Amino acid sequence: MSFQFSPEEFLRDTKATAEAIGAAYSEEATRKVLDTYADSLRDGAVLWRATDRPGDALNYRFYERIPTNSVTTAIRAGLLDPKNPMIDLISAWSSLYSGTSTELCDFDAEHGLSKTWIYLGGMRPLEQILGVPGVPRVLRAHESRFRELGLTSVRHVAVDYRSSTASLYFRTSRKITWTELEQLLTLVGGELPTPELFSHMEKFTSPDGFTFSVTAAAGGAEIQQVGVYALRLPVGQFPVVGDRLATFFDSAPSYDDEEMNAPAWSFGPGGKNYVKAERSYCGRLVELMKQWNSPMTTVY
């Protein structure tokens, strides 16, 4: 029998995981999220997220299986300021494609709601995603460059309410190479990884493509960050991720039917690089990722 999400058990697990990696935790904020999104957390897929940067937040996320209006829910519950400038953009993205999109939410274990994602119901053309009102100008300005780099199909989009940033998540169609990464990092003027780090990226990204993210601030003139995701590592195998994320993978509990661990290498201008990591908690996340045709390291 599959694990059944329990709010009280999740509270204990969140507190223990936050303590293990040195992240802040608020029981009050976490309880409010659990009360507000009880159905989504019970019926969706839930995962943990952390970074290798000391003191960064422990995040958790739910993935919906049905279309929902999580933004309105957040506003009504007092989790989101209705004047937040990113609401119009995420609502415009969510309204695309005749109700086939689903909303996903990220939460900070100390502060509550931090981010809303949209799964767009499939692979969508770049021009349609960039064409809605409120898309940061810098993303629109890079449309031709995205195309030159083969970044034409978008699966997810997201906004971060705290940093006022927007992100596009592209699906590439081939194995990562040093030359391709070098070209992709021109989007941010980022420093290339060490050969050792790249060897891990090459080993753990899917042979038939990978997820590539691009993030920009609403009023910014430059792209802030890009990222390469390796979704679903082979069980028991991990790239070198540093002590904090090693502790995260070891400490964050996973009760899912199939374990999903994922690193993401993030690159910014001037060597502002870091590593993110995700780990499934419950809700058959791998099953959902297969339905989305996500590029996973372990190929079936």
TrEMBL record:
Keywords: Prenyltransferase, Pyruvate, Transferase. It comes from the Bacteria. Coiled coil: none annotated. Transmembrane segments: none annotated. GO terms for molecular function: prenyltransferase activity. SUPFAM superfamilies: Prenyltransferase-like (SSF143492). Belongs to the aromatic prenyltransferase family. This is 4-hydroxyphenylpyruvate 3-dimethylallyltransferase.
